[in-house]
Amino acid sequence: KKQVDQLLRLELFFDPAAPPALPPSFNPIIVEPGRWLLRLPQEAITAVFTHLNLTQLDDFRLHSATLEDLYLHYATQRDE
User: Fold this and answer.
1) Which of 7, 26, 55, 80 is spaced 20 to 30 Å from 36 by Cα?
2) pLDDT (mean) for 53-57
3) Does 67 have pLDDT greater than 50?
């Protein structure tokens, strides 16, 4: 849980026909067309926002990790 607590949740909302470019090392979870989810370490947020063209976004949400993130973290680790 402590490892997940260090993550921030960034949701990006955009026109599915024009997805934003992300730094190469970041792989979003595609929630649905036009909506991505990234779980990022706190120190990576500046790099992501520096790289993003904010005019391509309809909206974004940035907040601390949720119970869903904790579940996804452990479910993903189990599959590996």
Assistant:
1) 80
2) 94
3) yes
The residues, any chain, with a CB within 8 Å of residue 3's CB and separated by 6 or more, are 73
- Whether the pLDDT of residue 17 is over 70: the answer is yes
Architecture of domain 2-79: 2-Layer Sandwich (3.30)
pLDDT for the residue numbered 78: 58
* pTM of this structure: 0.77
- Which residues touch 11 (CB under 8 Å, ≥6 apart)? 31, 35, 36, 37, 38, 60, 61, 62
Sorted by where each begins, the domain ranges of the chain are: 2-79
Cα separation, 10 vs 23, whole angstroms: 14
